[in-house]
Write a structure and sequence with these properties.
25% of the residues lie in helices and 15% in strands. The chain is built from 17 helices and 23 strands. An 8-stranded mixed β-sheet has the order 1-2-3-6-7-8-16-11.
Amino acid sequence: MGYSVLLAKGTPHQTVLRIYEETVEESERAHCDNCRCIGWFHHPVNKKQYHFIVHTDFRAKNKPELRGKRICQVCCCAVSASERKCSVCGDVDKECSILDHQTHLLHGELHGNGFGHLKRINGREAGSVALSGTQLMGLWERICYTLRAREVSVEDVSQKYGVEFRLLNPVACGVTWYGTYGYTFGKGSFGNTPMTHKRASEDLRKFQLKQLRSDFVLVQSLMDKDEADEMVNLVDKYTTIFEKEGIVMKTLGDLVSNVLKLQSDIRRAVKEGRRRPETLALHGVAAVLAGTKVVGGDNGLTRSKFESPKLAKRPPPEFLTPVSQKKLKTNNGQSKKINVPSAPMVQWNARGRETRNAPNVGSNWSDQSLNVAANACVLALYRSRDEWLSRTEVRNRAQNKGISDTALLDHVLKTSIDRTVVLPGGHERGVVRRRQKGNQSEFSLEMLTKTREVKKEPDEETVVSAQTPAAVKVPKPKRALATTVGALSAAEVDEDLLALYHDVLEHYRPALLQENAGQRVTCKGAPLVEAARALLDTKQFVKCYTPVEDLLDNTPVSKMAKPAANSQKAIRILVTVVIDARNQGPLLSGLGSNVGKARRRLGTETKPPPEMIFLPGDPTLGDLKRVASKAFSDLYVVLAKFKVTKVKGYEAMSDKIRLGWRKISGAHVEVHGEGADLESEFRYQGGLEQWTVKCMCGTGDDDGERMIACDKCEVWMHTRCMGIKDDLPAPKQFRCVKCGGPEPPRLVPDNRSRPAPRARSDN
């Protein structure tokens, strides 16, 4: 069932809000993964939930560069308009539920009990024409306050200008972008707590610029000559510019905050014609929809930068029960994320090569699909360059990047043999080789150019010019340092912001350079590496819109007038229902042993959130039981036949006894009953699967991150904590340290302490 509401009629911001009512018992989504990740998995499943959606107003026909193409609603890729099935994600978006579409400008969900989730906000970065992200967020705020929503969670994966906002915004203003609207720390991944998150933000914000500058001067000998003084010049440039504007900058937070404000002012001035015209760089999904490259992105043009939260990176659903099948948590029923550049790396039409063996000859796949699949194979071979990999190993690595069509992978492997490969950036070239070993074929990437070692696998989309030899590194022309705001261009500020983000905030480069060179980390900003990781690992935030106490009438009883005897909704009280008083129902999954015992002792599993009910003006105990029974049976699936049998504190009283309006008004009572379906699959929002989480980082329940289970004890742990990189598949066999497995290596550099300062001499 759906409803439509026309908003801002007759204005440039006119839009339509769609409201969809979903009956859970008839839906394919029996449980809520958002509730699982934020920590509400003990709530019973609601009978009804409501989706508030503003559909995208982007139209491909309005973009000349997208002529003959359409936008896939599932993966946001521009594909041929004649394609019914998306060649990138493999889904038919017209057959998918509208709730799975990634292109909505706004998608919020509210359960019947008042708890909800903000699933998506896509403003200008996502190609929105009429509404900005701020306007969409304002609309969601009004919806929640008007409907008296209780608590709403959000997974902060917002990006702007090609960078993660949950890292950039706390450094600039002390809170995340959602934090400016009242969203606070909800649940941290990898053992993060509200205190560690706050401390990380303060460490980055208050880091002194003079220390930042001295750290980059310290490691200049470890950097290339043409980039040794880039960050030093950047700091000096903006210090000079802002001093002329009367702004004194002392900390990293001051620098990032002022550069962000300057970037916004310059872009606005260009759009309004107050500055010389220039082409403003597009970022994020806006760049994808416009058919241009993503500035500062790492996912090429194949996937939306605002994709839905990683809901399925959790222990497997019911149909994956054997240990061999639950090795690695994957996307449950969702298309896997494509993390491959789309610009062709394999030189299919190189001079002197026969074109009859080109991959598009005699194939039914589109050129884009062939290039993406070939690039996935090349990147898989690049990770083990100059080594031989079997066909199965290459396919598995490519499938881990999101290419699920094995026939397509076999086809591009066969046609790319002995062809030249140009890696992103144009600085490295190689040739795909094949050899026969026994009964299987093995492949390798033979490198033709020897450049300095690249620690990170290249995945940024880059266009290689046909006139410039790919093996020759073209030095970037040095630009004269601007000394005034008027001398800065929007493109220059964009580049400087990206440099600050990547070399200072995301990865503090001086510390990593010393670590990679085998030196002792002596730079003063070494703790910023862990601080940035703490901010990036915290994605779950929550806002309390209506505290449970505010649901009651706060008027003192002495000032309340006696309600009319025939009034049916005169008195408000809070009721907590105990579903399973003897703890005989199924256990909650995903909790460590200590956490599980504590929650069971406190009754967390057996008590849904309290609900407000209305009683008549002169209520009896029977009225309280009747109204409470109806309220909870209408709300939760497992309580459809629930009937309250006793009220705590009134056990020995008759149902006809009068409660007294002064005594019962605003009270908080606890009720017990019978008829709850404890074995139903709708018992918990987190489901009934039995699994245990106990990771070395301190995590004791599901936090939404990728995990792996030990083959012996079947305890789930983070793959990252176990030394398995996110871009690698799960090993065929895995045992934790307690079960005899190897000690996992650290994926995050160990920030060893600096040496003690020298003793001061008296001379």
